[in-house]
Each structure stands twice: as C-alpha cells, then as structure tokens.
Amino acid sequence: MARVVVEVMPKPEILDPQGKAVARALPRLGFTGISEVRQGKRFEIEVDGEATAEVLADVRRAAETLLSNPVIEDVVRVAPIEDLA
Amino acid sequence: MAAGTLASARIGVVTFPGSLDDRDAARAVRLSGAEPVALWHADTDLRGVDAVVLPGGFSYGDYLRCGAIARFAPVMTEVVDAARAGLPVLGICNGFQILCEAHLLPGALIRNDHRTFVCRDQELRVESTATAWTGDFAANEVVTIPLKNGEGGYVADARTLDALEGEGRVVFRYVGRNPNGSHRDIAGIANEAGNVVGLMPHPEHAVEAGFGPDGARGPRTGVDGLRFFTSVLHSLVAAR
Q: What is the pLDDT of residue B6?
C-alpha cells in the first residue's frame, strides 16, 4: 500500500475569493507581511501496491479528469507521500 | 413526441442526490403544458423524453467542485450523447455547473467574487432568441428571473469569451449590477447548435402568478420564466 499526494491550485489568472478572504483575516490576527493567499486542494490517495511510474500516471489522469477542472485549476503536484520532505 | 400537440411533449427532469429544484422544474414543465418525466441520476436511459432539464440544488453536496461528481452520474452519459445529437437540454444553476463540468458548455462557475450567497430577483437581457429554450422571448428583452447561488461566477479565458460573443452564444446577460463577478456579465450561454442552454438564474421560480418575482402588474406577478418552457415546446413542434 502506498500513498500518493495530489495538489490542485486555482489557475493564477482565476480569482480565488477564499484565498482573498483568508488574506484579509490574517492581519486582524497580527500576521502582517503576508501579501497574498491562494487556497488549493490536497488529496491523499491510497493505492494498491507500490507507487510505480504507471500508478502515478494513472493518478495523474484521475487528477486531470475528476480531481481538477482544467478550465480553472492546475494539478501542481502528483507525488508518492514518502518523497514529500 | 406523439400526436403532435404540445401537451404530448415529455420533458425529463433529472434528480441527483442533493437536487433541490427538481419539483419546481417539473411543476414549471406542467404549467407550460407538457408532461414532466422524473429521471434519476442512476438511470441509464432517458425514457424517450423530448427534452431534459438539469435542475438547481447541490448535487452530491457540491463536493469537490459544483457539478463535478454529478457529471459522472450514469444518467449523464445518456444526457451528453443525446445533447450532442440535438436533444434540447436546459441546465439551471447547479445544472449549468454540471453542463460546464461535462464540457457540453465551455467555461466554469466559481465562487461569487463577493464571497457571499446571493438571493434576489435579477434582471437579465435576452441576447439570443436562436436557442431551443429562448425562442418565445424578444431579442434584447429584459426579463426578471430569481437568482440564488454561492458559486455563480462565470469564468472562461478571453479566447472562449470572444468566441461565445462572436457566435451569438451569450444567451443572457445580467442587467444593472453583476451579482457574482461573472466575466462580461454573462448569466447564461448556449452550445454551438443552440439546443443546450445553461444559466445561473432560476426560470422555474417565475412561472406562476403569486409565487414568482415582483412584476409589472404587481408583487409576485412575474412569470417570465414560463417562456423557457413554452419556447422548447414550440421548438419541438417546429422540429417535427
């Protein structure tokens, strides 16, 4: 059993109202010096067996068909979890 | 469609888990003179309907993205094939989101730019009467249709927006103020053939005096939404 992480972010040119709301709340809590927040999604996917190149390619296909909408989002990372330092 | 009368038209209304306005849509179909046919998300055939409405609501809890999971419901395979073959399909609010996720319509709907849910009687300009769902309107007519959504911001890249405008596929635009940050004030669009239309406002909530938005004849008299449904009946008769 291996775990694969998929990260999806709104495209840079797409408005991210959630990120903006978070960015506006931070200074009220004393967190200054933060100029922008963009909020994305992280999926942790458990696969049977090893996270081989083939499995990762499958996960990437899943990421591009269901987990993200290419009109508004980019898949920014597909990686086995042990590779994430 | 049998016999050739409007009353013999059968219009399917799909219910997904989390659909909310399926009953209102079915009622609007009935008030327009057609027979509503309940379709279920797990159905694998469309029961021979003459048109399909994808209603508003929060299919599958809006999990992942609005419409993203509904798009892969079994019934949608049939809807997509039939739509590509010319079956009239109307997507209202969540239904519009599903049509975009299914790539029957270009672009996507994102969270309102002001981040709050909006619920209001919304003025729209009818910019295309050349679709299966808008033939009973007058070009550039301003109509009032209730709008209620949290993720109604229509977005697409500039090339797609230019193409939509150039091909006359922007069907409705918001009048007055833009309620959700939609690019170019777009409230609804059509596919190239004009049989598939999606919009964020809810025509099924403006079909009977006493229950709709305020209209010219007094409070709650607005019935502009009814013409979506009579339009498709007329287009079905014309197509026979």
A: 58
